[in-house]
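Retro notes (design track)

What went well: tokenization of the new backbones is finally stable.
What didn't: we kept losing track of which sequence belonged to which structure.
Fix going forward: every design gets posted as structure first, then sequence, in one message. First example under the new rule, 454 residues:
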């Protein structure tokens, strides 16, 4: 299926349903609750009272002459007991047949009742695999139900002999009724509303996928977005909730993520080639919350471990967050802000994170700095002695100011969060970058599910 040029696959819809299972379950439970309340109110108002009429009978294997079938006598033979037990299923079918039910309704002179309504509410259950059968009829009126069940069992004696040639019913417990709360109404109301709630949840999940398809299939990176996948980073919620600086994280989850970023760093180095000039690129995204800041920091760390001299700058000037990932404490006097105001020098503004990685943070201010010519020249000057200059930029989908970085950058890397970024939004961001003339180095997919890493 195609939606505006985007190919939607069965797997995408199944993923949408699995993602929304809590909503689907909640709506189904709401339907169950409404059905329960509807039945309760109806029962209290007496609008849909239900009664259960019960009785029991035994089956005798007598023929049309009144003799037992096995020995043609008035006294039963052991074989007649077995024959009666074998007749239970056939007798039950005949009792619930249209012939028997129509005969009972004629006897009662009730043309307003359909035999199918009786058949749906009549249950016949053998007692402990014997020739004794327990009958149960759920009906809206108790007295009427007693009359109907009695007439049905009475009419069955005639139709049994006519249809089977053998069989006689002997009443053990005459029809008696008791009021049941909700009855069939409860089951039907709850069932219908549960199904309705379930379908509403399913329709919501499907429509969401149709109207706002997201990046849930890595093939869409090349097939729809026409980009190369620079890397696929696994989801690691525990890792990114940690307050420990990124350099000090050493658990197994951090190692799994770093392996992926290392592979992305090698690909990134290959994209730039073996040129001797400093290579500058900025990391951006279509929207907030896609993980671009973590990606910029992680790529800088991996390139530094490859013995490349790297300078990392925080240029998301309205929402600077790199210092929270890399520093335990930030000195306001050692920042890009202070450098641009002439309050410090480039050397003093630098934080040396490792032997090969330096970092210049930014501070959040009521009036954020602008990416003007003076600031760009300052950045260009800072990056001259480095192999890589990495800039954590604002989301390009939310700020066109980012494109001013094209004056000093050799390329742009777009980060998209798996199952969060809408394909149309990512495509718009890519078109914005490509239209500005900056080479797009590729797409880095963040927070992907494990099944995407195989």
């Amino acid at each position: 299926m195609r939606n505006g040029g985007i190919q939607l696959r069965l797997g995408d819809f199944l993923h949408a349903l699995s993602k929304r299972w809590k909503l689907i379950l909640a709506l189904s439970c709401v339907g169950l609750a409404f059905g329960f309340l509807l039945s309760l109110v109806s029962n209290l108002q007496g609008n849909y009272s239900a009664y259960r009429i019960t009785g029991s009978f035994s089956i005798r294997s007598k023929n049309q002459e009144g003799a037992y079938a096995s020995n043609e006598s008035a006294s039963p033979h052991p074989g007649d007991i077995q024959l009666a037990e074998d007749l239970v299923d056939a007798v039950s079918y005949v009792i619930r047949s249209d012939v028997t039910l129509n005969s009972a309704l004629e006897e009662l002179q009730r043309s307003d009742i359909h035999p199918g309504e009786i058949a749906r509410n009549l249950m016949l259950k053998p007692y402990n695999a014997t020739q004794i059968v327990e009958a149960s009829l759920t009906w809206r009126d108790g007295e009427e139900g007693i009359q109907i069940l009695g007439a049905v069992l009475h009419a069955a004696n005639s139709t049994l002999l006519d249809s089977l040639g053998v069989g006689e019913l002997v009443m053990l417990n005459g029809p008696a009724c008791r009021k049941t709360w909700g009855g069939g109404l409860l089951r039907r109301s709850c069932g219908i509303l549960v199904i309705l709630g379930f379908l509403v949840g399913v329709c919501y999940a499907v429509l969401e996928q149709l109207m706002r398809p997201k990046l849930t299939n890595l093939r869409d990176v090349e097939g729809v977005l026409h980009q190369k996948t620079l890397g696929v980073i696994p989801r690691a919620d525990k890792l990114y909730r940690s307050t420990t600086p990124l350099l000090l994280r050493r658990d197994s989850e951090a190692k799994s993520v770093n392996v992926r970023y290392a592979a992305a760093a090698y690909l990134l180095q290959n994209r730039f080639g073996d040129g001797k000039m400093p290579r500058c690129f900025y990391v951006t995204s279509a929207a907030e919350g896609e993980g671009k800041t973590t990606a910029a920091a992680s790529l800088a760390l991996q390139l530094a471990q490859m013995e490349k001299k790297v300078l990392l700058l925080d240029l998301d000037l309205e929402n600077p967050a790199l210092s929270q990932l890399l520093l335990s404490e930030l000195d306001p006097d050692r920042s890009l802000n202070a450098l641009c105001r002439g309050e410090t020098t480039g050397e003093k503004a630098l934080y040396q994170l490792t032997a090969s990685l330096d970092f210049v943070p930014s501070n959040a201010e009521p009036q954020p700095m602008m990416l003007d010519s003076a600031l760009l020249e300052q950045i260009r000057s800072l990056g001259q002695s480095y192999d890589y200059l990495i800039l954590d930029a604002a989301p390009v989908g939310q700020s066109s100011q980012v494109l001013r970085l094209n004056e000093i950058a050799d390329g742009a890397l777009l980060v998209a969060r798996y199952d969060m970024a809408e394909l149309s939004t990512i495509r718009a961001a890519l078109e914005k970058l490509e239209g500005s003339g900056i080479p797009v180095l590729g797409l880095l997919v963040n927070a992907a599910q494990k099944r995407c890493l195989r």
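Added context from the reviewer: The chain is about 45% helix and 20% strand.
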